[in-house]
Each structure stands twice: as C-alpha cells, then as structure tokens.
Amino acid sequence: MPFINIQLSHELPDKLQIQLVEGVTQIMKSTLGKKAELTATTITTTNNDQWFINCDPLTDINENSAQVIARISENTNTEEEKARAIKQLYDLLDTLCGPISKTSYIMLDEVPMTDWGYGGQTQEHRRIKRSADGSIDTEHYLHKGKALRSQSVFNLLSKLRNKLKFV
Question: By percentage, how much of the chain surpasses pLDDT 90?
C-alpha cells in the first residue's frame, strides 16, 4: 500500500510524469514508511478551463492546480509524519507541475485495515501472524512479546549504566 490518485489541471510530458511518480513513491517510502513495491499511482488530467477556484477557471486566473489523494492504512503514521509528507508532496508538485495554486489539495485518506487489502487479503489479516492451519500463531506472539520485554530491560539497563557513569 498505498494507492495514490494524482489529478492535474494540465498535461505533463512523459518524463515529468515519471519523475512525479518516482518522487511520490519515494515520499511514501521515506516519510511514511510504506513499501515502494506496493505503492500504486495514477495520474489524470483536466484542462485548466475545466478546473475552477472561486468560480473562476484556471485559464482566467493564469494558474495551475493539483489534487492528490493517497489512501494509507489507518493509524500507521504519526501526525508529524503525515504533515511532513503533505508538505513534501506539495513541494514536489510545485517543482514539477508548477508553480501551482495554493488551492491545491493533498489528502491522506486513512482506511481501516479491515476495509482494504491486496492480493485478496485485508491488511488486518496480513497483520495477524497465522499458523499453517489458519489459527492465530500464539507461539509467534509469545516469542515476540518476550523479545520486546528483553529489549526494554536491556534499554533500561543501558540508561542506568550511562547515568551511573556521570555520578
């Protein structure tokens, strides 16, 4: 995941379209931690005379505009990560397609993990580790919990050791 729809108010040359898709995919990967190999993107265009801001066609106000809707799994990113991604996406659009109007919108649409997936499985189903017979793999979660507790104890001991060095 994610699935990204980009709508532009004007055509872009093929080379810039490729740069736009590569840039969007990189932002999804580096800023939001999404897998590039699961990122799908579409680009559609509308003529400037069919895109309106305050009832004025873009041709009359001599501007370009864009809209990005990126569907991501719910609760997988912090507010800070999402804000950074929105800024980076706007800047990318402004650089490759612009200058673009400030009235260009970028939406991160968070979809519950139970409501979407790929390859015929929901994200929630993929999140839960299952055994070969389809039951929840409790051994996996017991081991994972033990590993997390061990890491927490190690981190706490490391902090204590560092504090004692300065006493």
Answer: 65
